[in-house]
Amino acid sequence: MTVALQARDLCRDFRGFQATNHVHLDIHEGEIHAVIGPNGAGKTTLFNLLSGFLKPSSGEVHLFGERIDPLPPDAIVRRGLSRSFQISSVFPTLTVRENLLVALQAGTRLPGRFLTPLGAMDAFSARADDLLAQVGLDWARDRPAADLSHGEKRQLEIGLSLAQNPRVLLLDEPTSGMGSEGIARVIALVREVARGRTVVLVEHNMSVVAQLAHRITVLQYGQVLATGTYEEVRRDPRVIEAYLGQEAHP
Ligand SMILES: Nc1ncnc2c1ncn2[C@@H]1O[C@H](COP(=O)(O)OP(=O)(O)OP(=O)(O)O)[C@@H](O)[C@H]1O
């Protein structure tokens, strides 16, 4: 078993407040791993630390055995880890396909180059079409992204993350704000994109977690409360206790 992504004794404080508190995390290559926990448990902070958007106060992050926490986020993307955001990163006035083309071009080492070689543009073009099909948005290729529904924008965001062809994909609440139809689409999409790569997701919807995750890490007060399969963590008395009084019961 290869460890794709690892947090080693990871800590982050905000002016004395421990948002991430000695977290150790092993994400196995090829698994879908959900990070859950009550509101304010430190899930987003952990994602920010894993993807380089926040620097740890102490501890380390390793991607396939290489230390990445000192690197800037774009260098981490080039090493093979990419993430989607809770807040939309879609350009609303560009078409769905143009959004993907921008993401593909940004993934090269020449994002600001004035004249991209034609061969490279052809390759981007073909890859954009593949991604459109993969995220189920080929029907919307020439529509402005602003016209997409909330759920469709989340599908496009997953496509934007896939444009980097990551080995490890972090998804921050991919089903938030969606109805049951959108949720079913995202579950199918995550399963599809998880083929041949490792996926870590923050997710509040326990039914989604139960359907998707091979293993789950439960956070509380910035600490790892439990790690295991859905059945293991839902029976854990500490997890049940943590969720008492919360809307979402595991
Ligand atoms: N930049 C910051 N400055 C100060 N405190 C912060 C900052 N970012 C997060 N926190 C605090 O750290 C704690 C963990 O926040 P975080 O957003 O990581 O939790 P979460 O589990 O993602 O919550 P939710 O489920 O509500 O999205 C919270 O108490 C939050 O107020």
Automatic annotation (TrEMBL):
A single MF term (Gene Ontology): ATP binding
All copies of domain ABC transporter, residue ranges: 5-246
Cellular component GO terms held in the UniProt record: plasma membrane
The protein's Enzyme Commission number: 3.6.3.17
CDD domains: ABC_Mj1267_LivG_branched (cd03219)
SUPFAM superfamilies (UniProt xref): P-loop containing nucleoside triphosphate hydrolases (SSF52540)
Cleaved signal peptide residues: none
InterPro entries linked to this entry: AAA+_ATPase, ABC_AA/LPS_Transport, ABC_transporter-like_ATP-bd, BCA_ABC_TP_C, P-loop_NTPase
Keywords per UniProt: ATP-binding, Hydrolase, Nucleotide-binding, Transport
Protein name, entry field: Monosaccharide-transporting ATPase
Organism expressing this protein natively: Deinococcus maricopensis (strain DSM 21211 / LMG 22137 / NRRL B-23946 / LB-34)
